[in-house]
Amino acid sequence: METALREGERIDELGRKGYRLIQDTHSFCFGIDAVLLADFAQASEKESVCDLGCGNGILPLLLKGRDKGGRITGLEIQPEAARLARRNLALNGLEESAEIIEGDIREASALFGRASFDVVVSNPPYREAGGGLVNPDPGKAIARHEILCTLEDVIREGAALLKPAGRFFMVHRPRRLSQILSLLPQYGLAAKTLRFVHGSLEKEADMVLLEAVRGGRAGLIVQKPLILYREDGSYIEEVKEIYYG
User: Fold this and answer.
1) Contact in structure between 51 and 61 (CB atoms under 8 Å)
2) DSSP string, 67-94
3) In what helix (H) or strand (E) does residue 128 lie, and over which residues does it extend?
4) 111 exposure class (CB count in 10 Å sphere: 0-12, 13-18, 19+)
5) How large a percentage of the chain has pLDDT more than 90?
6) Once rounded to an integer, what is the mean pLDDT over residues 67-92?
7) Burial class (CB in 10 A: 0-12, 13-18, 19+), 224
8) N or C: which end of the chain has fewer CB within 10 A?
9) Helix, strand, or coil here: 44?
10) What pLDDT band is residue 135 in, cutting at 50, 70 and 90?
11) Which domains, from first to last, does the chain contain?
């Protein structure tokens, strides 16, 4: 697998196990939401994990950098992103413990089989189709808007992929939380843990981290909020630990 940089690409250090990530600067680059989700998600080294919409492979790398998950499978519909994700696995010597499959989230359970994973993670598009300005770059538009899959598609297929008592982890926007919480029980998932993420103490939550369990009992824990930045704009110690600890 080719790992040499192409025009418009750069390599970023991930701060874990020396792992590095090739990013296409003309395409969608990962943000702090992926880092927070990898920290929030829980998976033992014996559990199988599926990343719905893996993009350039950032979540499999971040999870492996934290010793989370056994075999990790990333599903990505965009051919160029899938190829880049495979190159990133090769760059870090992870071809034996992770794989990238090119395919449609809406057909995930048909592709992999129902009840085939212990854990599902997803950092899906946040905006509904037609919501806000759509980036003219197709790759960025697909990553940010529900063009090729909806929130319901992600939850439905995530639930279908999980074994009984399997866990579903997702990062999303708080304004979609009521919709998320109404969809989960429709597909046999019980919300178990929420954590809101704020840029600062004075700002409203910008992200929400969610754990749901297939067939889980009622009972929701709302963790203390995560504040990202100090007044001087630097990361608080907890965020530094999440990145580099």
Assistant:
1) no
2) T--SSEEEEES-HHHHHHHHHHHHHTT-
3) none
4) middle
5) 80
6) 96
7) exposed
8) N
9) coil
10) low
11) 9-244 (3.40.50.150)
